[in-house]
Design brief:
With 123 residues, the chain is an alpha+beta fold. It has two domains: 31 residues; 74 residues, Alpha-Beta Plaits. The protein is 42% helix and 22% strand. It has three helices and four strands. The chain has a four-stranded antiparallel β-sheet with strand order 2-3-1-4. The radius of gyration is 21 Å and the shape is elongated. The chain starts with a helix and ends with a strand. The model has no long low-confidence stretch (mean pLDDT 88).
Length: 123
């Protein structure tokens, strides 16, 4: 009898664990790896490329879904004089800027969003 109870408890635990895993998987399919971003997209008011004489590409580590790219893009577009576009496929952000920004400002903005800049290419 004890063997049957132990087996039933183990089976019940496996069912609960399986249920939790399936729910998490379904959530990831719907909302990406980090859930919904929960924040409104930062809109860049000035989208005239002629107003942005500087260009910077940031290689970014840790982005796994569209919500990740939204977070990084919002963090960069909050900086004064920046117009950023982020690509998940290329794991990078391409920035246009109205003035030269130091590397630390860019790294800090991305880090605050929860990601890491691995390379900065100016040009």
């Amino acid at each position: 009898m004890n063997g049957n109870v132990s087996t039933a408890v183990i089976v019940a635990l496996l069912i609960v664990i399986g249920f939790i895993a399936v729910r998490k998987y379904v959530k990831n399919l719907r909302h990406g790896c980090c859930g919904g971003s929960g924040e409104e997209k930062v809109k860049v008011a000035d989208k005239n490329a002629a107003h942005y004489p500087y260009s910077v590409t940031l290689k970014i580590e840790g982005m796994r879904c569209a919500n990740c790219t939204d977070r990084v893009e919002n963090a960069l577009n909050r900086l004064d004089g920046i117009w950023a576009k982020v690509s998940l496929k290329r794991a990078e952000a391409v920035l246009r800027s109205k003035s030269v920004l130091d590397d630390e400002t860019l790294r800090t903005a991305v880090a605050r969003a929860g990601y890491r800049v691995t390379e900065i290419v100016r040009g």
